[in-house]
Write a structure and sequence with these properties.
By secondary structure, the protein is mostly helical. Helices cover 76% and strands 0% of the residues.
Length: 157
C-alpha cells in the first residue's frame, strides 16, 4: 500500500526537528559562552545594580534562574533528539510497509517530545492519524479466486 502522505509529512517533520536541534545547540553554545564570560556577567550585574528597586535577593534569584534555564534547555534538546530518532524509526516502518500502527505510535510520541504544538509535531500527528485510519484495499479477486461462482453469476458471501 502506498503511504505517500505519511512519508512526506514525516520527512518534513524530521527535517524541521533536526534544524531545531541544530539551532538549539547553537543557542546553548551562545548561552554558555555568555554565562561563563566574566565581562558579560559583570556588565549584566552592573545593569541590574543600576535599577534602584533591585535587591540582592532578587539578583540571586535571577542567577538561580540562569542555572535552571541551562538544564531546561538541555532537557529540551535531548527530547528533540529522541523525537528525531523515533520519527526516523516510524519512517522506516512506513517505508518498508512493516507496521503502520507502530509507526503511528512512534509519530505521536515523537510529536509529543518534539514540542506539543509546534509545526513538526502537528505534521507528525496528522501522519499518525493517517497511519491509523488508512486501510489496505480489499483483495476481492484474490480472496475468491479458488471458489466457484453460482450459476446466477453471484459470488458467495
Amino acid at each position: 500500500m502506498k503511504r505517500t502522505a505519511e512519508k512526506v509529512l514525516s520527512i518534513i517533520a524530521v527535517i524541521m526537528t533536526a534544524i531545531g536541534v541544530v539551532f538549539g545547540f547553537i543557542a546553548m553554545a551562545i548561552f554558555n559562552i555568555v554565562k561563563n564570560d566574566p565581562a558579560a556577567m559583570r556588565d549584566f550585574e552592573r545593569e541590574m545594580m543600576a535599577d534602584p528597586a533591585m535587591t540582592q535577593a532578587e539578583m540571586d534569584a535571577i542567577y538561580g534562574v540562569f542555572s535552571v534555564m541551562g538544564g531546561f534547555f538541555w532537557f529540551l534538546l535531548i527530547a528533540m533528539i529522541i523525537s528525531v530518532v523515533l520519527n526516523i524509526i516510524g519512517i522506516v516502518n512506513i517505508w518498508k510497509n512493516k507496521n503502520a500502527k507502530l509507526a503511528g505510535i512512534m509519530f505521536i510520541i515523537a510529536g509529543l517530545l518534539g514540542g506539543i504544538l509546534s509545526l513538526p509535531s502537528i505534521l507528525l500527528y496528522v501522519a499518525a492519524i493517517l497511519c491509523f485510519t488508512k486501510k489496505p484495499p480489499l483483495q476481492d479477486d484474490l480472496q475468491f479466486a479458488d471458489q466457484s461462482y453460482n450459476s446466477d453469476g453471484m459470488r458467495p458471501l
